[in-house]
Amino acid sequence: MRITKRGLVLSTTALAISSVAITGFGLRFSQSQAFFQDSPKEIIDEVWQVVNRNYVDGTFNGEDWREVRTEYLDKQYKDKEEAYTAIREMLKKLNDPYTRFMNPEEFKSMQIDTSGELTGIGIQISKDEKTQEIVVISPIEDTPAFKAGIVSKDIIREIDGKSTKGMELNDAVSLIRGKPNTSVTILIERGGKTLNFNITRATIEIHPVKARIDTDSKLGKVDYVRLVQFSGNAAAEMKQAIIQGEKDNVAGYILDLRSNPGGLLYSSVEIARMFIDEGKIVTTVDRVGEVDAHTANKTALTKKPVVVLVDGGSASASEILSGALQDHKRATIVGTQTFGKGLVQSVRGLGDGSGMAVTIAKYLTPDGRDINKHGITPDVVYELTDADKEVLIKDREKVGTIEDAQFKKAIEILTQQVAKK
Q1: What letter would DSSP give residue 382?
Q2: Fewest C-beta atoms under 10 Å: which of 198, 345, 364, 371?
Q3: 389 belongs to the catalytic site
């Protein structure tokens, strides 16, 4: 997710993403690219300075950051490739998978706009801080990875036969990415078992909101809204879904955020305002203190009961929205623990055309809860059994129907809430 502030692009999505989920930034480069080409140490120092000025943790996760600068500037580098290797090694000392360096080619891939056509298999990935394993945050709905059966928390062991042990996140992304109609083979570890997936890459157009109005025998009309990504037009599509629900006088709403990896900050804030009339929605905190607080502005579109479905693939913007609704007691959260990604990254171009993402802040819910690593605990924890999961994996059309056990639970809870009201 991103916001533009002080001329920078701030992002809360896990930035190691196959090209179907990369956010576009349109950043301008410095006029001194030739100078950086001839002076590899300059790009190392530029990266060091960015971290030194902006990193969220003033202790740099226990590293003597000034000593790190001396260490890397005392070395000699024959070309920029050696400098790039040194930068990645230097950033690794922070033990933060979201603070990363991108060479010019990798950085260009981030020019893809979130709302445009995207190419790839449709997964968002991260590197586990403790195990250093490449892990799936979430597949994006209706993409090749989603249809193949890739799920949140899958560990990627091999990509086209290459082991991911010790592999950099950027390298994993590069191997997964590719042209439409080409294929990639991914070896997954899930629950101690290994699974092999051969997935054909595609050009993907993401429609963020899927809404329909159902009629339940006990409840009456229900507006079911599945939000798959917080892209540029998600808020507008969500607004239309709610307006239609109000016109049809629905009894309540089921908002499905399962496997939603996040997206744009303003999108999550705008959607929260459609349900919350006043008060804080999310607060940004950097190493000095509170930077910004986003609040409701008395523009809520409905006061009807809301049930929100979440799972381990609900990350970043999904956690901001569900956390705000939960803290305001505006919705009942149902499902399983969310991913736990509540950090803000500034993404910027560097002098030689390369780029970097640096963690500069974290997000807190209205009650001051730190989303990062902890995630959102549902009000009603309801896990799918292996048999339940198999039903949905075999036929994705059953997601959000009565054959979807978590959706069925949401209907039950919404019925109770409407009866109380």
Answers
A1: -
A2: 198
A3: no
Instruction: Give me the catalytic one of 256, 311, 327, 404.
Output: 327
216 and 200 in one domain?
A: no
Q: Decide if 193 is inside a domain.
A: yes
Taking the chain (421 residues) in runs of 10, the rounded mean pLDDT of each run is 33 32 32 54 95 95 96 94 96 92 81 55 85 89 89 94 91 88 96 95 84 90 95 93 97 96 90 98 90 93 98 94 98 96 87 92 94 93 94 86 96 94 76
Please give the pLDDT value at position 187.
97
| Domain contains 239 | yes
The per-residue pLDDT for 190 is: 95
Candidate list 126, 316, 318, 346, residue with the active-site label: 316
Phi-psi region of 78 (alpha: psi -120 to 50; beta: other; left: phi over 0): alpha
Catalytic annotation, pick one of 341, 346, 354, 404: 341
What pLDDT was estimated at residue 109? 65
Q: Tell me the C-alpha distance between 204 and 117, whole Å.
A: 6
User: Is 174 one of the annotated active-site residues of the chain?
Assistant: no
Candidates 205, 311, 300; CA nearest to 256 is: 311
Q: Is the same domain home to 181 and 215? A: no
Angle at 117 between CA 114 and CA 118, to 5 degrees: 75
Q: Write down the pLDDT at residue 178.
A: 86
Closest CA to 184 of 145, 215, 154, 216: 145
Domain count, the chain: 3
Q: DSSP letters along 322-356, please? A: HHHHHHTT-SEEEES------EEEEEEE-TTS-EE
Q: What is the pTM of this model?
A: 0.73
Q: Which domain holds residue 383?
A: 208-341+365-420
Q: Is residue 311 annotated as a catalytic residue, yes or no?
A: no
Question: Are residues 14 and 157 located together in one domain of the fold?
Answer: no
> How far apart (Å, rounded) are the C-alpha atoms in residues 383 and 310?
10
Residue 203 burial (CB count, 10 A)? 12
On whether residue 150 sits in a domain, the answer given is yes
